[in-house]
Amino acid sequence: MRKHLWIVSALLVVAALIFGGCAAPAAAPAAPAAGEQATEPAAGSVADCATKDPVTLQLKWVAQAQFAGYYAAQGEGFYDDECLDITINPGGPDIVPEQVVAGGQADFGINFVPSLLSAREQGTNLVNIAQVFERSAMREISWKDTGIAGPADLKGKKVAVWFGGNEFELLATLAKNGIDKDKDVQLIQQPFDMNLLLERQVDAAAAMTYNELAQVLETPDKDGNLYTLDQLNIIDFNQEGTAMLQDGVFTTEEWLKETKNQDIAARFLRASFKGWMFCRDNPDKCVDYVLEQGPALPKGHQTWMMNEVNNLIWPSSAGIGQMDPAIFDQTASIAQQFGIIKNPPAAGSFVTEYAKQALAGIEGDTMGKAFKPVEVTITAGGQ
What residues are paired with 108 via a beta bridge? Predict the structure, then answer.
């Protein structure tokens, strides 16, 4: 009798191995049509898989801590846990993520929301599926001795800013303060360095908190001393109510029409969110993941960047990746005001169900109230 039971049990095990294979992911609902209210799909997870789904992510810029969460998710195996074989492609000055994704060379892309809205208006049907950065990193900085304590003080000054789509937060701030951009200020085309400000050829200059601001602080003055934050005035567009949304995750409506891809999107976001949560709690380790990519800027600078990028995500008002409709409307309004788009964005420019599904499958603090920056020692050149 025991022998017969043993044989039956063995046959059952063999059958399970033959027919079990890769656990099938939970099916996601059909993608909503533009303007329709989507229903929230049930949370699901991939327990095991025989064949991983390949996915490609196109970054906005070169490898740096701005994208640390994705490198961490790869390094910590979070994409593997979701049965995904991830390829992360760096960006550069000649790479437009919207074009790469629309052309099918990548499944997901990272870029500023105004750029996505412009691409949508031109007919690419891109859609934001997760808004990772809740706050803008764009600032206008000046030396304290110039007396520019706030936006109103920019009147009559030489003000540098990057053009090509990076100037609109500044222009919206000038307009909000009754300053005519053509008559009341002298706008200067800013190169991708801080030399105009450092050499005092302009009164104020644009800076990202995670990059150019650090570059100023890493530069010695004529006496060999590093500049400090208390020597600067900083205009924060978030506080001025003129900030625009930056790094969001997008794909195409056509790609999302396939049920399998809807499930892949939720799994990709879940792994990516876990990567950003890991970077919130382990910033030093995430800097190491970035350094493995061979970035142009060194460890000290990347550590500063990691802190500042974390500040753009955490704390999260509704959980990482969730779009704030009010800030989206503010971004769209400014984009229309300055001609990035001609018309208000059509319904369906962003969807939230995949990010919600991703959050539903994550344990832990997805709002990140406990973020603590890692200690950074500013050194010349950011070493």
Answer: 57
Give the pLDDT confidence of 100-126 residue by residue, as tens digits: 999 999 999 999 999 999 999 999 999
User: May I ask the CATH class of domain 138-240?
Assistant: alpha beta
* Residue whose token pair is 């010695």: 220
Name the residue among 304, 49, 321, 341 with its Cα closest to residue 168.
341
- Measured CA to CA, the distance from residue 28 to residue 38 in angstroms comes to 12
Report helix, strand or coil for 223: coil
| pLDDT surpasses 60 at 16 | no
Helix, strand, coil fractions of the chain, as percent rounded to 5: 40, 15, 45
Confidence of residue 49 (pLDDT cuts 50, 70, 90): confident
Q: How far apart are CA 303 and CA 383, in angstroms?
A: 10
Q: Which residue has the higher pLDDT, 50 or 336?
A: 336
- Chain-centroid distance of CA 76 in Å reads 19
130-165: b or e for each residue (b if 16 or more CB lie within 10 Å)? bbbbbbbbbbbbbbeebebeebebbbebbbbbbeee
53-134+245-382 fold: D-Maltodextrin-Binding Protein; domain 2 (3.40.190)
Amino acid letter, 64: Q
Quote the tokens at residue 250: 């997008």
Q: Residue 204: beta bridge partners?
A: 142, 159
Rounded CA separation 108/372 (Å): 30
| Prediction pTM value | 0.86
Q: Quickly state the pLDDT bin for 31 (edges 50, 70, 90).
A: very low
pLDDT in tens, 338-379: 999 999 999 999 999 999 999 999 999 999 988 888 889 899
**Three-class SS state of 300:** helix
Q: Classify residue 217 as exposed, middle or buried by CB count within 10 Å of its CB (0-12, 13-18, 19+).
A: buried
Q: What is the domain partition of the chain in residue ranges?
A: 53-134+245-382, 138-240
Q: Name residues whose C-beta falls within 8 Å of residue 205's C-beta, 6 or more positions apart in sequence.
A: 140, 141, 142, 159, 160, 161, 190, 194, 196, 197, 212
| Structure token digits, residue 372 | 């603590």
Nearest to 64 by CA among 310, 292, 312, 372: 292
Residue 302 has pLDDT above 70, yes or no: yes
